[in-house]
Each structure stands twice: as C-alpha cells, then as structure tokens.
Amino acid sequence: MHSAQVLSDGSRIRWVEIPGVEPVLVFVHGLGASSAPYFAPATAHPALAGRRTLMIDMLGFGISDRPADLAYTLEEHADALAAALDQAAVGAADVVAHSMGGAVAVTLAARHPHLVGRLVLVDANLDPLPPPQAKRPGSSGIAVYRTEQEFLDRGWNETMDFVGPFWAATMRLAGPEALYRSAMNLLRGTVPTMRENLEKLPIPRTFLYPAGDGPRADADSLTASGVSVVDIPDCGHNIMVDNPDGFARAVAQALNEQAVACPAAPAAARA
C-alpha cells in the first residue's frame, strides 16, 4: 500500500500499486466503492498487464482517510487526487474512471491537465441532476435524504440494506459524511458541467457504457467533440465487475487507438 498526504490536516489518500512500464495506468472508483476490489481483475488481464498501475481511493472512501470537515465537492476530490498523483510522480497518466470517479476524472483533467494524458470514462456522470423523488440505486438513492443529519440518523443503515451485499461491502468503508456529501455534490455537478469540460479537453477520450442500455442519446454529440463512444456487452453499470474480460479488452483497445490517433499527446502532456 502507498499513500500521500493531500490535506493540511494530515489526511492521506492511499492506493494499491503494481510496478511496470509507463505511462502509468490509474483506476478511479465510483461512489461508495474502492478501486482495488472493482478493478483488480482488469489489472491482471493480459491486455493490461505489465503497466505501472495505481488503484487509488478517493478521500472518504476505501482505504483512504475520511476527514469529516471536508465538503467533498467534485473539485475537492479532483484536487486531492492531483496532490496524490503528483507525489506518486505519475506524469501524464492513462486515467480509467467509473461512475462518480469519471466525473472527478474529468474535473481532474480540466484543473490539472499535466496529470492526465488519456482518459477512459466508464459509464460516468456527465450532467447535474435534480433531487430524486424516490429512492433508487446510485447517488440518487442517497440524495433522497434531504439533510445530512437525516442520512446519518437513518439513511446510512437504510442505504446499506438497499444497495445489496456487493456494493455495501465497500460502501461501509466510506465515511458517512463523505458518502452523503459526495452524492449530493455529484447531483449538483460542476461549473462548467462535467460534459462541457469533457468536450473541451484536448486529450484522447473514450466513453464506455453497457450495451444493454441501448444507444446513448448523446452519442453523436460526444463523437462530434472527439470522444469515442463504445458499448460493452453482457454488463450493467459496473462494467468491470460484470464483464472483466470485455472491460479490460475495451480499455486496452481504447488506449491503443488513442495512441495511434494522437501519438504525441502523452509525451506532450508529460513535458
């Protein structure tokens, strides 16, 4: 396990690292998750093996610290990740990020462009959303509690029961305040929005999504802005868990195609 202090109060981000060749491959988890349990099978896949790989946990989640006084905005998550990646000397990394982690990764690339050479988003959040009217999986299931105190009083236990044993196994590692604030801030999004930032990024970008969801309504607009949109079969939202082989091959293909399409991008970003 590796770590880096990212806040003045001593809070540290931690990650599991696999040695190998560069550019570095960085995996970022989604809301209530942890990178190693979700991404470890992909890192061992022949299509991705041999790379220096960081499976990193955002502040508030997994094996990282859980400061109770942080607002946990997407910008704060991105800045904390940037501090950790700078200390890890990753250069211009290939960042693969799932769900909320994708929203953070877009924000990271926009605010700290020297750290992200290529970006693969995995069914990521790109737009702000209105508060939910009923509980459902994802950040909306948490945001149904209108106040943080309500979530702390009863929402934490109800959410653990609602999300099921797999997600709860990593969600229970999160700080309750971090979980709630991150979920609410994910619904609020960023200004400019994650989508607007993604469309303006000058780096190679790929968006993976479950084929079972049907064609994405935004596929044409994403493609027009230079984002490759790729559907992955036999999976739901947790693509890397449901179809690890298809996920690893798709990530490898995306990075290879990005390298061919824009071979100078990683080197330029590292300079």
Automatic annotation (TrEMBL):
This protein's UniProt keywords: Hydrolase
AB hydrolase-1 domain boundaries: 23-136
Protein origin, superkingdom: Bacteria
Example GO molecular function: hydrolase activity
UniProt KW Magnesium keyword: no
Cited Pfam families: Abhydrolase_1
Key word Cell wall biogenesis/degradation present: no
Gene Ontology cellular-component terms listed: membrane
PANTHER family given in the database record: HYDROLASE, PUTATIVE (AFU_ORTHOLOGUE AFUA_2G14860)-RELATED, MONOACYLGLYCEROL LIPASE
Record's protein name: Hydrolase
Organism: Streptosporangium roseum (strain ATCC 12428 / DSM 43021 / JCM 3005 / KCTC 9067 / NCIMB 10171 / NRRL 2505 / NI 9100)
